[in-house]
Structure formats: structure tokens, C-alpha cells
Amino acid sequence: MSLHVFANFVTPFGTAANNRAETEGNITTLQKLLWLGETHSTVSAEAIRFALRRRLASAESTNREWDEIECVNAWEDPEFKGWSGDKGKTFIDDDLLGFMKADAAKEEGESGSANIRRAVLEVTRAVSLTPWSGDVTFNAASPGATPSAQKKGRNPVPYGTEVHATRYQYGIALTPERLRDKSRAAKAIDALCNLGTVAGNHGRFLFDFSPDVVVLRITSDPAPRLLYSFDTTDNGKTLNADALVKRIDSKDINPKELILGAGDLDSKLVASLKARGVAVFGVKRACEEAVNRINAELKIKG
Fold first, then answer.
1. pLDDT tens sequence across 237-289
2. Contacts of 89 (CB under 8 A, 6+ apart)
3. 154 in a structural domain
């Protein structure tokens, strides 16, 4: 049986704005979706993957590295040639996150070609735990502060920003046996547990995307069964995992497969899962426990 690693992350409470969405008129908008019939803000999996790729670079060299000056990717192997043979040099970001290089046909009537590797580490879209109530802040750019402000001469330029004070939750799925280098599974979990900025406001203002709570599942079961399992009944002040508890009580999930990491070890959430036999730690210690279990299962020396 294959080993599977699943996790569901919840961020601390913070204020998010923009999240790489579009601008409509002079309003910078949030990405939004309907979630259980209400409007929630959301952060794309691509934004999470972008931040993860940066973190992975602290573990191994990556194929793509973002050039902050030129605002482009600097590539080590843009043709992904290392994947053509079993002993070719591969990079951790391509191994985990996959790639696709498509070439159009050079002449009419010929077929194009594509070099594709499916992502082994799959990431869900992050969804706010609380509905978006429509908060908008109104601001004024200083004269000359932006290209649009420069067009207004000596006058400040008013603009609005949709904001959301909330937490986000998202999940991942990973099957280490599908990796070229299995030791990269534990490195991915470590990077996810130490994510920095993902959501914010044009990348200038901070929203902490490191987990405030995380539940990891290391199992032979191919289905996650724990994605989006956190909820709140007090506008994000505290969390519950009633959906996960029901899964445990119904024996859909073996609690011994779970590791909970929480910033507040005195919370009701911790008590309810601990009473059902789930291993509970602080967030960083929980991630270390997951890394140790993964490496032990894969017989990799940490």
C-alpha cells in the first residue's frame, strides 16, 4: 500500500486585502467565491504554491527562482531535460509541484508537443473561515506616488480597498512514492509549516500564512477525509473541528494517523481531539513529528 500525507492548515487571524485579485475602477478587489451559500474571500492555490517554492529553496536548489528586480523567473533547466533519464538532475520544486512545457507545431499540419509532469503535491484553494461582510477602506495616494496619481498633478488620488479580517484554511495531498526523491516529502511538509507571506495587500502588507492550527494525516488511505474540516462559531476567535471529530467517531479516520499542531494547547479544539487519541503538540513540534513519521515510513534517515 502507498503512503499518503494529507494536511489541513488554518492561519492566524489577520487582515487580508487584494490577494492578487483584479482592480475594478479605483477599487482593489478581493478574490471571492460562494461557500455554503455565503460570500467568502479566497486565496488561490497558485499564490500558496508561489510562496512554497520560495521556502523549498531553503532546503534544496529550485529550478525556478523569482528575480525581484526583473520580476521574472530565473531558470536552471527551462527545458526540464533532467527528467529525460532516470539519473538526470531534477529539482525539488519540479518534483513536488510538477511542470508543463508545451510547444506549438512548427508547420501547419504537424502536431505540437508537451513535456508534462503532474504535481505530486496538490494544494487546495484557501477559503476564509468567516463570510466577507463587505468591508472597504478608503484611502488617498499622495500626489505623484503612483502612475495614476502622477496624472492627477498635485492632487491626491482617492481609492478604495476591499479588506477581510479573518482566518483562512486550505489543504494538501501528497503521495511520496510518486516523487523522484522521496526525501522531498518531509521537506515539503517542513516548508508548508513555515510559510510566510501569501495573502496581503500588493505584497506590501503582511498577512501571516504560517499555520496557527494544523492537522496532518499520514496513512495508507488514499482519500484525505479532513479537508476544510475546521469551523468557527465566534467569528474566528476560536476554532472547532466538529466535522473531523465526527469522522473519527464514525471510524472513517483512525485517530492514530492524525497529528494536531495548535498554538493554544488549552483550547476546546485540542481537548476534543486529544480525548479521541489524537497526538497533540505545538505547531512546530507537530510538524517535526510528521516529518519524523514520514521519513520513518519511507526508511529515510532524517
1. 999 999 999 999 999 999 999 999 999 999 999 999 999 999 999 999 999 99
2. 77, 82
3. no
